[in-house]
Automatic annotation (TrEMBL):
Active site residues per record: 91, 219
Identification of the protein by name: Glutamate racemase
InterPro entries named among the record's database cross-references: Asp/Glu/hydantoin_racemase, Asp/Glu_race, Asp/Glu_racemase_AS_1, Asp/Glu_racemase_AS_2, Glu_race
Function: Provides the (R)-glutamate required for cell wall biosynthesis.
Source species, domain of life: Bacteria
Length: 303
């Protein structure tokens, strides 16, 4: 027997490759999903991210679920072509409209933001009375009520569509410089104007009267308005954003699959917008992502 002979076997089990430096794909109708992308970057600082903001077709909220499902298919296919190892639908409306279809279509794992938010709410509530604020499409889909009650059928869910919050968050981005939360915090006289507080009270007072102790911010734009919303519902109501919970899910899935980026991987962040104004995306996006955005490209999808 030739003792120098070596047999190369495919690696399996403990010896299998334990990292994957391909990027994570994240998308939303615009800037809101950057609240999710920044949590992923915080929790998984070695991961590269490809982010797409579909600003040209924002808002998704007033559209039909069928139409938004079509957008999810289009954007998911585009991200898969870019070699992503996992897709995060960082938009509640798009999750409600297209998550299960996307999971059946794409060759990589796809996660949404409704289930993580529902789970966090079900864990947080003590009196089992949970409020949900979201876009019209998300509320009409009933996705949160189903997801929360799937975890605990004894929880009563009260949902309200708050479409003007998307508008207010977008307006906040157009004002001044610096992280957007500085302009939406209670200490800022610049941004929380009486008119916005009036809108917030109109939306949220009925929920407060339902004696909720937990409120799901069921739209990825809404964490940007935490201070405004929290100021109206009061300290006794726990605000739930799915961003952090979704980032934990990403970490979990990648680690289970041995697909986290390697320790020495230098992450890259690539941003794309379908909007006309790439410079606007760069400057507003940086205020949500809280890091300078260098690489921004424009993508056009056939209508
Ligand atoms: N960010 C989207 C969501 O989470 C809402 C914004 C829109 O209406 O496009 O539902």
């Amino acid at each position: 027997m030739d003792t120098n002979e070596t047999t190369i076997e495919p690696l399996e089990g403990a010896d299998a490759p334990r990292f994957d430096n391909a990027p994570i794909g994240v998308f939303d109708s615009g800037f809101g999903g950057l609240t999710v992308a920044r949590e992923i970057a915080k929790e998984l600082p070695r991961e590269s991210i490809v982010y797409l903001g579909d600003s040209a077709r924002c808002p998704y909220g007033p559209r039909s679920l069928d139409e938004v499902d079509g957008f999810v298919q289009q954007i998911g296919a585009w991200l898969v072509e870019r070699g992503v190892k996992l897709v995060v639908i960082a938009c509640n409306t798009a999750t409600a409209a297209g998550l299960s279809h996307a999971q059946r279509t794409f060759p990589v794992p796809v996660i949404g933001v409704v289930e993580p938010g529902a789970r966090a709410a079900a864990h947080a509530t003590k009196n089992r009375r949970v409020g949900v604020i979201a876009t019209k499409a998300t509320v009409e889909s009933d996705a949160y009520t189903k997801a929360i009650r799937h975890l605990d059928a004894g929880i009563t869910v009260f949902s309200t569509a708050t479409p003007r919050f998307v508008e207010i968050a977008e307006q906040g981005l157009r004002m001044a410089e610096g992280p957007i939360e500085d302009f939406t915090s209670l200490v800022s006289t610049v941004y929380i104007r009486p008119a916005f507080q009036e809108i917030a009270r109109e939306y949220l007072e009925p929920l407060r009267r339902c004696d909720i102790d937990t409120l799901v911010l069921g739209c990825t734009h809404f964490p940007l308005l935490k201070a405004l919303i929290g100021g109206v519902v009061g300290r006794d109501v726990t605000l739930i954003s799915s961003a952090q919970e979704a980032a934990h899910d990403v970490a979990h899935i990648l680690s289970r699959r041995g697909a986290l980026a390697s320790e020495d991987h230098e992450p890259s962040y690539d941003f794309y917008t379908t909007g006309e104004d790439v410079e606007e995306f760069r400057s507003f996006g940086a205020r949500v992502f809280r890091t300078d955005i260098d690489r921004v490209g424009r993508v056009a999808f056939p209508s």
